[in-house]
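Bumping with the actual sequence this time:
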Amino acid sequence: MSDEKEAAPSTVGAGPLVIVKGGTTPSSYDNELAKQKHLTEVGRAHQDKQMRAAAAGDAMTSQGFVSSRLHSLRLLDRGSPRLVLLYMNRDGTVRQHGVSEVVTLPDGDELFLMVCPRCLERGVPHGNAQIQVRKSHRKWEIDMKRMGEFVELTDPYGKPFHVKLIGTVSSDEILRCANFNCNWAVRIENSKVVEV
């Protein structure tokens, strides 16, 4: 009779995932992150190959004449208005900035993206450190007073560039990073991202 009990499948299901604060992540999580990082690198290599081919344009090669161009149906370009998010230090100074687009989904919902700096510092790939802030999940509003204003920012290589503002965003609700073992939580007021 004890053999029958051992052979019977569990009705409870898999046990709960236990998270130890400051502990290590499960190997399945680490493997999934490594897989996503590899796929990102493969995608970037393919995109770089496309860009090199398009840069060649019309050319004669050993295989014959080649004409290559990139076409995009993207509606936004570098001159399109965007959000500039200012990630604040506790003393009120700006630690870093982020540029985001406001996107309207086919179902009418709106969203913008922000990045969790804690996840980036832990080595999480950039694509996995993004937070989608949907209007249907967290209430946020755009103040249009600064719409059309240009802001000068500096890229990671020290080169200045300009961004045309769509306005400033504010949310009274707490926005949290949903990544494993991350407790980053913020509020946004006039595009200032302040940790809570």
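The tokens above came from a reply further down the thread. Helices lie at 2-7, 27-56, 117-121.
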